[in-house]
Amino acid sequence: MKDQQTVLYDAPGPRARRITLIGSIVAVLLIIAGGYFLIYKPLDDKGQFSMDLWGPLIDPNNEVFPLVWERLGEGFKATLIAAALAIVSSLVMGTALAVLRIQLKSLVKRRYEDLATPLAYLLRGLNWFLSAVSRIFVEIFRGLPVVITIFFVASALPDLGVDLGDILWYLVIGLTLYNMVVIGEILRSGMEGLPGGQREAAEAMGLSPFQTTRMILLPQAFRIMLPALISQLVVVLKDTSLGFIISYEEVLKVSTQIIQALDDPNPIQTYTVVGTIYILVNYALSKLAEYVQRRLARGRKTRGLPIPEKPSAALIAEVEAGGRL
Amino acid sequence: MSVLVDHFDVFASGFWLTFQLCLLSAVGALLMGTLGAVMRISPVPPLRWVGTAYVTVFRNCPLTIVFFFAAFGLPSLGSNADFLKIPGLDSLFTRLGIDLPYFRFGIIALSLYTGAFVCEAIRSGINAVSPGQAEAARAIGLTFTQNLRFVVLPQAWKAAIVPLGSVIIAMIKNSALAGFFGVVGDLSNGAQNLTSALGEPIIPVFVGVSIGFLIMTAPLGLLLDRIERRRTVAR
């Protein structure tokens, strides 16, 4: 960004600097004026800044402060539990889906010429069918809103006689259905994007197709796609908030209950606090994704270097210390 | 499956309303996103800060909270989003002009939220243009605006179209949330009514709603795949 930005305009001279300064001052004044008249004043007129409304959230001496934060803490705990379960299960299922689709894709090409003709046709038809089913599954759940998936999982499963007891599981299943498909596609495109030589070399060594995927392709795909996978964590964490639709007691649902229970309902204040916490956590996660991406990009640059025939002990130590990727 | 036939009007009108919501929000999001992207590359630091703050806040905040603010925060600011009652447009999109503000709140929430992602898509497109292009443009004496207009943006647009498309697909899916925030009669609200109020069987309703959303998302997704594949071949 920095590079691009500096080439868009010349290094400012005295006149341009003056114009920029004046522009900055005007912009700041406009922003302050806009903020005051459009946001601060209407809020103040409605008494949204009074301590009656903010007190329960930010004043430790307020009588309900500990109660409010205890409930909010429980809410956050529930959010994190749901998010963690959803992430783990979507990672596992997504990896399985990616491997399955890659395997099916290579099986579809197989002609089974050593088998009797009807049997060969049957196997080829079966492979084609399974490949089509997995493709349709992916397209459907990728194209459906998560809200709808969660809502219908929560109402359809009990209807079909599957009672999971805790609402948590419906939320986790709904989130998993969507995110496993996304993660599966991320990994699959990662594996297909690898140089073809990787697969060929593995096959030449005598690895079976499954071994090739498991030992050669998947680890590299994971590494390349790590930033995308971390970004997906942010998405899962954000989507956990949809649990309020099926009355899972995550932080937003809890906030709504708190707001209703307080003597002076304070929706704006409570949602501001909860939103800020969400933003901080997700911002940290997306920074982590950027950092990982930078690290990986730096690692890729060294790939072109000649590799010593036998790695020296110093090099091994360096790699193990995590100094160089 | 008879519910699909019996209540076809619910699905059809729900689809139409969701489609309107998506269309208007997409326009709003593209406007917000372009504005944000222009702010983020402008030479004036405070504008850059505002752009960055906007993107950071809305990218990291769950859409649910944005919807809460739009649906409960705006009324307590004393606004019914009446500025969206644009004459002429509201005769085409009749929901814009009615007194019940939730359709307008939905548009605002979706536009603001999606705008942040649009901004990122445009910015990544601008970053994909090699610096040499902008340098060459400047060397032949184009100003900042001319540089953007004739050299950088036309190329950035090409690089940004696939990410932009994915953002719009995500927005179409996100629009399902509007039905849980007061918008009456869109696909998700219609589905809730059918299953809870009328006690219709759940799976067929689910199929109907899915078809409604897939009609919008699947062709767009296929189109994007195609553009992307052609792009890689061309390169």
Would you mind describing this structure in some detail?
The complex is a heterodimer of chains A (about 325) and B (about 240). Chain A is mainly α. Chain A is built from 13 helices and no strands. Chain A has one domain: MetI-like fold. In chain A, α7 (about 165-190) runs antiparallel to α10 and α8 packs antiparallel against α9 (about 210-225). The longest helix of chain A is centred in the first third of the chain and has 45 residues, at about 65-110. Chain A starts with a helix and ends in a 5-residue tail after the last helix. Chain B is an all-alpha fold and about 240 residues long. Chain B has ten helices and no strands. Chain B has helices at about 1-5, 10-40, 45-60, 65-75, 90, 100-130, 130-140, 145-175, 185-195, 200-235. The longest helix of chain B has about 35 residues, at about 10-40. Chain B starts with a helix and ends with a helix.
Give the beta-strand count of chain A.
0
- Largest interface (CB < 8 Å): A-B, 57 and 59 residues
Euclidean distance between termini CA atoms of chain B:
48 Å
Fourth CATH level, the homologous superfamily of chain B = MetI-like
What is the ordering of alpha helices and beta strands of chain B?
HHHHHHHHHH
Number of helices of chain A: 13
CATH architecture identity of chain A: Orthogonal Bundle
> In the CATH hierarchy, what is the class of chain B?
Mainly Alpha
How far apart are the first and last residues' alpha carbons of chain A, in Å? 24 Å
Gross morphology of chain A is flat
Largest sheet of chain A: none
The parts of chain B where pLDDT drops under 50 for at least 5 residues are: none
> How many domains would you count in the coordinates of chain A?
1
Cα-atom radius of gyration of chain B? 20 Å
Mean pLDDT of chain B: 84
Instruction: Report the helical percentage of chain A.
Output: over 70%
By CATH reckoning, the class of chain A would read: Mainly Alpha
Largest sheet of chain B: none
SS class of chain A: mainly alpha
How much of the residues of chain B is beta strand, in percent? Answer: under 5%
